[in-house]
Amino acid sequence: MFAAINFENLSQEMAQGQGEHLASLATLMGVPAEHQAEFFAVTQDRTFLVKAGEASPVAMVKAMNDAIATHPVLAQVSAR
Amino acid sequence: MRSRPIRCSPRFLLANNQHRASTVRSKPCVFLVRCLCVVLILISLFFVHPSSVNAEEAEGDPYLAQLISQAVLLQLADKREWHLLLHYRPNLFGGYMSEADDPHFFLSPLGRTDSHAELKRTIQSLFSEEPVGSSKQPAQCSFIARYHWLKDRLAIDERKLPAIRCERFDRWVNELNAESVTLIFASAFLENPASMFGHTFLRVDQKGQTDQTRLLAYTINYAAEVPPDEGALYPIKGIFGGFKGSFMTPPYYLKVLEYRDIENRDIWEYRLHFSEHQVRRLLEHAWELGSTYFDYFFFKENCSYHILSLLEYADPTLHLTDQFHVWTVPADTVRLVAAQPVLVKDTMYRPSRRTVIQRKREWLSGEEHRLFVDITEHVGSIKQEGFVRLPIQRRAFILDVTSDYLRYRSETDKSHASVYKEQNRAILAARSALRIPSEDVKIEPFSKQPDLGHGTSRASVGTGWRNNDTFEELSIRAGYHDLLDPEIGHTQDAQVEIASLSVRHYNRADQTRVERATLVNVMSLSPIDDLFRAPSWKVNVGMNTIRFGDCQFCSNGVLSGGIGAAAETQLFKREVYFAFADAEANYSRAYEERHRIGGGGTVGMLADVTDRWKLMLSGSYLRYALGDKSDDIRWYAGTRYTLAQNWALRLEYNHRDRDNDVVFSIQAFF
Residue B251 carries which DSSP code? Predict the structure, then answer.
């Protein structure tokens, strides 16, 4: 629900590589604060925006989850 | 027409249960499960718990008799905290009455006006598991703050009166995960009459929350429940208590979305110094209020008033609501809270999107600004050589402010929202390709925090000269702010005057008369430039005194409105120019057929000469085609000098056809 309501803010902050909505989402997804920078870097990838633009917040969160799962560091540290 | 919500916004009323259900710390996969759990809890709200003992059965209990006599001895029913819990207020007849309007808020049928009966019945009910109150729980849980207060005051022995486990409350408190409380002020929003005075609510800050994640905290928001099909009568009902108001707990990100992103209102956050115990008391009382309602009165028993009552129960040494008798203006409550010793820990500012854009523009060079405007019009301009040549940080900055602007446009020009969203998507794709994070930019507010602003009401004493006479003048204005008042803490270029009256004594004519009266006088100036193009507008209902024909001092009813445009320069400090097309109707015995209706135009300017000194000039020409066929040329020049937060001097000159009026006054705000 957080992702759905804040979809526009999240899209913007993903492109900007930082922001409080994105940091809040990272917290919800179990990314520890000290690894937020990596999370921001991952989500800045433009492919997320393209996917999100075509699909929905659900697709966005799914893509993020997949990205975390395949990320060498985030996959280890995230409380998933 | 869909009615607009009364601010204290009811927009999230229906969503509230879901929001209360939404979880903040969970991972998305657990998210739905948690939501479901809480929905189930909420559904259980409506099922009656089987009662093992009811209040009457408890009557024979010797411990009950002991507690009641102890309470009588300690005079608990007369204690301030008990009165705060039940929201008793003294009435005109020497008694008192609760402001709560829901009969389920009281356990005794006499509870609304009889604090002793209510106390006795409450103690009785604590012995029972019978569900009571609108939330249908045992009294210990429905009225958990009352229970804990009595438990403390009467040193209730749990062996004789066992504590009931309040699972629903425990779950709610766990969900809130509260550490501290922040008072939030959303500044005025002139486009909606119900939001002209701003709005306040509380944010329950979570343990482990950072500045970045405070969006996830819940809020406690009091709002009127306005049915969506409520028609033109809704402002009247809002003013006179025709709606029910209740407490809700939407998450903060929803409020930020509403105020910052959609309505473009600056937000101020005042973190309060409450101990863990005080936060707990606040939540317990909020829980009791969560299932009840109060009749909503726009001017007094509004959002801010009820928020104050929560703060008072959290810390009963605070005396807040008793400072408000006739109306409770949100900014006044903020000033009052800020004025309490050590109550406010710190203040944070959250700029509206519009403020962000305007501040970021100031950081652009002339060439960068040109590129920025180009890109907002044609996304393809990012391929321009001038843009590509810029350092990567500057490109990122320009794309960021472009995206802010396109989002602003998609909220303010709804009919083209999809176009702006599409453009924004392209900008964001280009922005993400730069692969650098945006730098944090500190955005300064255009108007300072509300607690530094002047008081809501104003009284003036003045003296002056009119035509061949001199006069003394007394004026009083209920609220709120006019364009010449000291602007600190108030929304820029926004005038809202409600209920003012000026009485003059003319010395030579030896006549005392009501010189001017205003019911409402609202003016919104929105400077236009290459990005912002909102119209300016004004509405005025009142009366003044004119010289017309043979009549030296004639009362003249005025109903007028105008639509126009404004522009801003910064030649000295800040100047705003405006032009309006006006329509006006007058009623006076001075006119043939006692009325005249016409139209015309006004031009004028406002200038800040220094931080304390402001000037306003305007000129109007109106031609009246209906009723008394006449015309009118008016000039106005006014200047204000601020002496202190609540003191100012004014010198004003008004000219109409053969009518000149100069007044010098000193003004006090309170």
Answer: B
